[in-house]
Design a protein that fits this description.
single chain, 11-stranded parallel sheet, alpha/beta, about 15% strand, two-stranded parallel sheet
Length: about 525
């Protein structure tokens, strides 16, 4: 060991720790001083700040100034995990809900005492002070991942909003003559709520903190959970979200992930009654105006676009009052879109001149309206007009990237017309030869990112590029909380059904004819919560 050059030893250790869990790799530092010297720059790249490091009920010690001074120089990434944090309104709702189930009283009291922000656990001011202290000693931090609280019941987002506001306040570091801070380059936000984004953007102080914090941001990943049930507030949310994104003027990659899906295989139609930029949309439901907004912000720079499980929001009224083909992914062959129509493939091809890579998977529609209105839409453009059974995603990519289309089933040419008449000849001249055997990686997002490159998701698995960002202890504890809440829901249902049965027996009715609905706990596969 003593005869091995330090450079070779360091290279061997770097390769070794890449295949090990981080906790196991940390133990190697204690083998000898050479191991410690070689491993410290690798193992100390990311500093974790978890709920258990902040709570006074935890046996785990928070980071100390002495320890931070030792490793601060090597730290370039910060991983903050507050998924265990509960919302006081959520706990209050559970207390009210379980008031007739005495066995759940202790559970609710524990949630309020141990898992909410309060003087007995930790306060907002203490959280902000902890983050500020970390950034002071680790002044080279330029990558941050923040796992926000995940509510189990109801739309309550106070804890999410508070955590976001205090984090951005800590990130808005004041200029210090003695300390030179690195600018934030990578930001990953998981479990952000639409209500929280709107709330932050309505507070001038929060807006200043956000803009100052992300002014040099290059890579932005944000997973959003829809909590606002009112459709008329969607424009406010859209404006707030795009204002947030537009504040990062140096942005190179953007990944928007919607986590309000049900984890079932996606359907083609979901019916709901009444600088250089790489962009990725995953598991989101958006209006067609989204692409008009993207055009105005990224139109001159966007080079790569990835869509995965994206649903276009379509609203329909009565069949005789709606234009069934106003909003489409691909559009109709040999038909020019009318004024006001948004055919997304046409919009992208017309307005994103620098786009070089476009991939799509599992595109569909999210229809708001009546059954009659849905029937009037005639299955949108989901069916392949050429009879080749190509998916909507593949045909979308072909139109965006300018591939010539095969002939229609009737034998007529299949021509996708430009919205602008003066551009029709240009579109025709730029067409690529029709490809009958396209490899999946040439049009499918999942295949491309698995086999070729994954430029937008490099930060999803690991914020430092070495060790995955997964806290098994947090996921296990969240699962235990969810299971206990589900047990309480079952007991509450049994209690209410028994009361309903007794009342019906007294009245001489049929006890099986009455049903009582109770709120549902969000069922979550915690292995899916870390962004893939």
């Amino acid at each position: 060991m003593d005869k091995v050059p330090f450079e070779i030893l360091a290279a061997i250790l770097r390769v070794t720790v890449h295949s090990m869990p981080k906790n196991a790799a940390l133990n190697l530092r204690f083998v000898c001083r050479a191991f410690d010297t070689a491993l410290k720059p690798i193992l100390c790249q990311t500093l974790n700040l978890e709920f258990t490091r902040l709570s006074r009920f935890s046996h785990r010690r928070p980071p100390t100034p002495e320890g931070l001074q030792t490793i601060g120089y090597h730290c370039t990434s910060l991983y903050i995990d507050l998924m265990l944090l509960r919302d006081e309104l959520e706990v209050g709702f559970l207390k009210t809900l379980f008031r007739d189930v005495p066995s759940m009283t202790e559970f609710c009291d524990t949630l309020n005492t141990r898992y909410c922000m309060n003087p007995r656990s930790f306060t907002e001011e203490e959280y902000r002070a902890s983050v500020t202290e970390l950034l002071f000693y680790c002044n080279r931090v330029e990558r941050i991942r923040l796992n926000l609280p995940f509510p189990l019941v109801g739309p309550h987002c106070t804890a999410v909003t508070s955590t976001l506001a205090n984090t951005f306040a800590a990130l808005n570091r004041k200029e210090d003559e003695e300390v030179e801070y690195s600018k934030l380059k990578v930001l990953v936000l998981e479990n952000a709520a639409d209500i929280s984004i709107c709330s932050l953007w309505m507070n001038p102080l929060d807006v200043v903190n956000i803009r100052k914090s992300i002014e040099c941001l290059e890579h932005f990943v944000i997973s959003i959970r829809r909590r606002e049930p009112l459709l008329d507030r969607y424009p406010i949310y859209a404006i707030s979200l795009w204002s947030l994104i537009a504040s990062a003027s140096l942005l190179r990659t953007l990944s928007l992930v919607g986590l309000d899906c049900d984890h079932r295989p996606p359907k083609s139609i979901k019916h709901t009654v009444s600088s250089t930029v790489d962009e990725k949309l995953k598991r989101v439901e958006i209006s067609a105006d989204f692409f008009s907004s993207a055009r105005s912000i990224f139109g001159k720079t966007l080079r790569e676009l990835f869509l995965n499980e994206v649903y276009l929001k379509v609203s329909g009224t009565e069949p005789d009052q709606t234009h069934p083909f106003k909003v489409l992914w691909v559009g109709l062959p040999n038909t020019r879109p009318r004024e006001g129509d948004i055919w997304v493939a046409h919009v992208i091809r017309e307005n994103l001149p620098k786009l070089r890579v476009c991939r799509a998977s599992r595109l569909g529609y999210d229809f708001y309206g009546t059954e009659a209105g849905l029937e009037a839409c005639q299955n949108f453009d989901l069916d392949d007009p050429c009879g080749l059974k190509r998916t909507l995603a593949r045909r979308f990519v072909e139109v965006v990237t300018g591939y010539d289309q095969p002939k229609l089933e009737s034998g007529e040419p299949c021509i996708m017309l430009s919205p602008q008449r003066e551009h029709s000849q240009v579109w025709k001249e730029e067409l690529k030869p029709v490809s009958k055997r396209m490899r999946p990686s040439e049009w499918d997002t999942i295949a491309y990112q698995s086999l070729v490159a994954n430029p937008t998701s490099a930060w999803l698995r690991s914020i430092d590029g070495i060790f995955p960002n997964c806290n098994k202890g947090t996921l296990d504890e969240l699962h235990a909380i969810a299971q206990t809440a589900c047990t309480g829901m079952n007991k509450l249902t049994e209690h209410r059904n028994s009361l309903a049965g007794e009342a019906l027996v007294v009245e001489g009715g049929d006890s099986g004819s009455d049903t009582i609905n109770t709120p549902q706990v969000h069922q979550v596969d915690w292995n899916q919560t870390s962004l893939q």
